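Archive transcription. Copying these from loose printouts into the bound notebook so they stop getting lost. Printout 1 of 2:
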Amino acid sequence: MFYCSNLYRMSLLRYDGVRLDSIWDSITSTTSPPPSPSSPPKAPKVEVPVSDPTNFLKKVQAKFNSTIHSVHADTFMTVEGYNYTIRNGSNRWTEPLGQRLLILDADSRVSEKEIDSMLTPSPLNDDIMSGRTAGMLNHFLYALIHGYDYRLVKSPPMTDRHGTWSKVSLIKEALKTHDYVVFLDADATFQYYRLPYEWLMSMWGFGKDSLVAMPEDPNSPVNQDSKGWVLWNTGFVTAQQSERTQEMFERWESCPLGERYPECKHWGYDWSHEQAAFGNFVRYEYEVGKGKDLVPIPCMDGNGANYIVDKKCGGVFVAHHWFYKDLPTRELYEKLDDSFVVDMQNYFHLNQKKYYVDASEYTYPLNDLKI
């Protein structure tokens, strides 16, 4: 979870007497994402005809069904040539989770008044679409392809801590209506539409009794807890409902109150907020590892991107565009044509009562919010 607005403040910090700006640059420096070599110069924009949105699911099935990777497969080859294999004896998720699994987006800023928003009634195109909206459409399409449920929640403002903490409360509530919740920041995107999430859960060792899984951050001093353990990135969270999971989220949500963890109070507002609170306190109370309570996802698989300097964080399956937050738009249109995106937007609007939850008037704790 990296935020550009924090870079200046971070540059003033020190770690054991060393300025963090130099550490930060050496670990997370990026090269500018190269222009897509396969993309020709853009033609002038033309009005995209809008087809019947009720037929959109048939269009999704026609486009993707024949390409979906089998949940029973043992291997997967990436475009980079990496061969991923599910080891013998690993817990296997071979039955489709369907609507029991929720892909969750949350944002306090989403509005019908924004011309680049998921909620705007006018057709979107790659000239006006924000990276935030493109990331949400990536998540929405991934859910439709695999039959998962989807929600975009307009989160209520936080009054006693930084706004990024809202994800903890929203995931906790979503687990009361769904068995599995996959939360992603809008700048985190699925790289393979055809790869079922059940297959990824099998590969990462998410067990039948596991509580949550998160990707590791780039391993540098600025991304380590007080004991030197690399933090996990809360911009991509997989959670499974259980009494113990609810208990864990209660501990996490209440961390800045300082009752269970007296030294956690400052993480209410200090960067990296809920991520640092989880890393410094909550995870130490649970078993960690494949098949355990808490499952770390390798940074290579679920964080970073292929253009950052740290080649151990390539975002192979889920890329996280910390600095280039408009990149999800380019990604979306490299894989989909304009008419498909417009149809997808219209399908969302046609079913907005199901997929969108306006929770902006709610107050925390969100005990009465149904997601």
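Printout 2 of 2:
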Amino acid sequence: LRFAPPQPVDPWSQPRRFTQFGPQCVQPESMLNPPGQQESEDCLTLNVWAPESALNAAVMVWIHGGSFTSGSGALSWYDGAALASRGVVVVTLNYRLGALGFLHLGGIPGETANGLDHAANLGLQDQAAALKWVHDNIAAVGGDPRRVTIFGESAGAMSVGAHLVSPASAGLFSRAILQSGTPAHSHGLEAAAAVRVAVLESMVGSDDTDLRVLQAIEVRRFIEADAAANAVARTAALPLPFQPVRDGLHLPVDPRESIRDGACAQIPLLVGANRDEMRLFSLGAAMAGTVPSEETLLRRAKRMLESANSSSQPAELLARYREVSGHDGGIDLWSALATDAVFRLHALDLAESQAAAGGQVWHYSFEYASEAFGGLLGAAHALEIPFAFDNLHQRGISLLLGEVTEEMSRLATGMADAWVSFAQGQSPRLPGGDPWPAFSQTTPTTAVLGVESSLTTTHLDEVRDLWTSRG
């Protein structure tokens, strides 16, 4: 079934016992993968945590991140027990990754002959199939199929953004949480074609091939082809080589345009990003003491401004960030620039679009600074996950957050409470219990989540004009 749409599982009539996670989808090796985790192309499983005696409980379906190339629903960070103890049913899921899940093959020779409808966005199709399973079956464990919240981080949040406007997902969820990812990240057909050509040439020597050839290739060859896909992404300034594709079917148009037009105004959103997202990706350079030159910083600033269609000058942008961030140069200055360009500005834009369309939206900025690695991480990418799940004691988390403190535990309790309250149809509250007003055009409220959580209405005001300048 490689490159085929996901198939429903055959039903069974007798109870079956499931005591272990299913295999993860094929992916590169990673230190984050659970120890002893099996791997297979037959990997489309999901996991359920339900409160005892649950009845019509709200449901939270988690879509994991990992740049669309790694991860699984079995990662200990995503253990749903703490959230389920608050009265919700929690579901995590797997979806096909990398070229096997997001290589755009629509129209490739042999597709129709093999009985395949549309070999594109297969990872998104997998997620939608899991949502359909939840809709049809979650009542059996006490969940309410009418109250399903989809939530995800990074690539998972980008996936959530795609489902907000995808016809295949319509009616399968009623609320959504997007953590450090938005619908801003999707490929047009031209970019998707460039990635496809690079991958196929790397694997079979030509992009003029047949689907049957690809179905017969040893599966690890697809992982080895990631290098070719990454090279194309760097050359074409694509954020990620594999991501949802605007194929005209599963993702008909640019999701950002649809959301501005009110496509998901009826779906309440909770959206945000972390203050120091890019520090996770620059940690190695920071630990090595690598200092980018002024020329390098100017070149990177120019590229980011071009991606934002801004007419501002790179030198002007660097000067403003030096003033606002307090970083004179180096990795920290670049991290501040890139965090805003890739994550925080897009989250704020989504909140504004949803509010302008008449929809409900709550916006946050996660700002708890990790003390691990001598404080080099700050509030880096993914560090909000164990707080939102209230999973600070799970395996591997102390590596990035350090030893758990009382203030960390309070923040985790408060964030998990807020996420669950939102999923249950209530207005979330700040950690500590104070009100958290919705974001609106007249009062653009942002919850600053940290040791002492607070509210602001001036999030990114000091720099945003430079990113949005059109000359």
